[in-house]
Amino acid sequence: MTLKTWLAASAPLAEDPAIRYLRVGAEEWRRLAEDVAASGGRLLALWGQDATAGHPAVFAAYHTAAGLWVGELRRDGPESADDPYPGVQDLYPFAGRMQRAIRDLQGLRSTDPDLRPWLRHPPGEAYEFVRVEGDGVHEIPVGPVHAGIIEPGHFRFSVVGEKVLRLEERLGYVHKGIEQRFVEFDALDGCRLAARVSGDSAVAFSWAYCIALESQWRARIPRRALWLRALALELERVANHLGDLGALGNDAGFAFGLAQFSRLKELVLRATETAFGQRYPMDWVVPGGVARDLPAAAAAALDRCLADVVAESAVLRGIYDEHAGVRDRFTGTGTIAPELAARLGLAGLAGRASGQAHDLRADLRYAPYEELRPAVCGAVAGDVAARVAVRFDELLESCRLARRILAGLPAGDSRVAIVPPASDEFGIGAVEGWRGPVLVALATAAGGRIRRCHPHDPSWQNWPAIEHAVIDNIVPDFPLINKSFNLSYSGHDS
Amino acid sequence: MRPIDWLTQVLEVVAALAVAPLFQGWVNQCRAWLQNRRAPPLWQTYRAIRKLFHKDAVIATNASPLFRVAPYVVFATMLTAAAVIPSMGTRLPFSPAADAIALVGLFATARMFLALAAMDVGTPFGTLGARREMMVGFLAEPALLMVIFVAALISSTTALPAISERLATGPLVLSPSLAFTGVAFTMVLLAENGRLPIDNPATHLELTMIHEAMLLEYSARHLALMEFASALKLMNYACIGFALFVPWGTATSAAGPFALAAAIPALAVKLVVAGAALALIETASAKLRVFRAPEFLATAFLFAVLGMLVHLLLGA
Questions:
Q1: Architecture category of domain A3-106 in CATH
Q2: What is the pTM for the complete model shown?
Q3: What is the pLDDT of residues A463-490, one digit of tens each?
Q4: Do domains A3-106 and A179-456 have the same CATH topology?
Q5: Chain A window 262-281: which residues touch B at a Cβ cutoff of 8 Å?
Q6: Less Cβ crowding at N or C end of chain B, within 10 Å?
Q7: For residue B294, which residues of chain A lie inside 8 Å, CB to CB?
């Protein structure tokens, strides 16, 4: 089958022609995955639901040349509960962990032979790491408690001297049961929880949630509100990129960079607070629009702040580029070549630094980005230096977009009331957050309760890639490589 | 031995104890200023040490006596070194106990104990740090010895006070051999004291640490002694540097109490300048990859050898 045949067999989801929904059987599930992979499409998320949400099923969201596709494989047929559904981990390597998570959370098993739990940490049960045998090979266990104040995750290095032969990650230490908490919420309030899945991507998650909700409730959002959401999203990107650029300098032992970029980040956060009322706007993107309109004075202040950020980060970029020590640490470290990145399905910023020119803002052109036309920044080297360069490029591009939004903000309402329909609905929303594509799948019941909600962080795609990026690097370069991806533990473990 | 010599000796040790944490605080202050940060107070190191002395020590159950003894040995070694180095006066009753080569041995003893204690508990980070420390050490020691040999050749003795006095009282000329060895010594100082670009004393990334990784298992008074010892070590290295390259201002053997009184502000000025320079070097450099450390220290060794060649061939 080709994509066209699948397209013909699909139905628009929530009357949105750009999002196609396919209900498939076990064989088609596998064939759909193969055909999407063969056509150059990518898997965005994989999640399951159990009988509490209506019927047991697994879902896959794909990003194809024809837009977003959602495949559903129902597991309420004659097959027994232990019958595995066909796994897709050979086509999309990162899907393995998602399938393991589905088994942990919903009890649905895939054909993947790796049966170790992933998010669930059964007490008293030792996790089986892959052992590397050989002369002089030894293991270094790191975490989940670290020397610095960072999120918990366990890393098992197999090394010879300082050289890393293999890294295996163990995550799930901050699994909070967010998906379960969602079903206790009214759909209109669930947005606030979505914003807290990963604090650094609050706008991306809350916006994706709102798209999912608004599309299934057939709400039309005023243009001004969409532009304001984009403004918040770009500011979030600017703040995070600034923070990361400083932290990357610091991890290379160049504390001057940390001090300077932290200062710039703080300026942006303060401007964000004046504009949206919160430094990290967690309650600002709400179903129907935004919580409050932009104060007139804040727009001018934001514009000035961004102009400063552009000017100063240009100077700092010069320093990073010309500092021999910093360059030496960044260049050639933690390389993921474009071919490997394509095979691993590397997403978002890290993917763009390895030649994977995917950006949902440009690819899907969801409003208001069809008007704003963001440039897709990218590099092909795939090392820490490339990820730094892409951050600098995106920082400038986001500042440009934000200032363009401030200059051309359409008039009108910034919020409309939306009401739940009298039927069960389902929808998805996808937004390009600063880290990569953020996806929220939401199913609501008549009356506005949440039946099921799955927030998907792009860290799922990229965590496995770090295991590849550190191979043949030296142990002390791992923190730098890890920071250049800066993935979320909370968003992944949710 | 005159009473004034004993006074100098006591004064030197007391000054080392009192000033070493201050010197470290000063370097940290300069670093903060250079990075556009607000600086911690000068006495922050004292505060940290005091805080640690008030805590209860937690020791791993499988720690051997070596682990408990090491902080005392390391601290005592650094204090002994401080007694031998002529920071204020060159007539030290204690100095015949160890010449410059024995001084290098003293530092090596401290390193040995530190590395053994780090491996004692058996955590991966301790071993990691000890391994790296030994790598840095075995490359830094020859360079340091070579620096001392150049100074010893010039002054025909290996006793540090005598070298210092010979250099201080000699004609004031710019000696190319000493200039080369001065560069070598600065590089060794950075490496031996866990400063950038070899090690980052401010890092919280356990995988990149060298010195800090060895101390991860220590707490309370043991950690306080280790921190104090590393402050003393930095001070000692600075004073060796002064003795070899800027010996002026110290009380020579012929001098009386006035020269000793003058030596105190002289040392203070030297420390202030050296601390600022150290902070400047650290701020301007990024951390080298671990595998660049041998290149860095080989360069230091090369500079020291160049210094020696210049002295032997040109007699300068």
A1: 2-Layer Sandwich (3.30)
A2: 0.91
A3: 999 999 999 999 999 999 999 999 999 9
A4: no
A5: 263
A6: N
A7: none
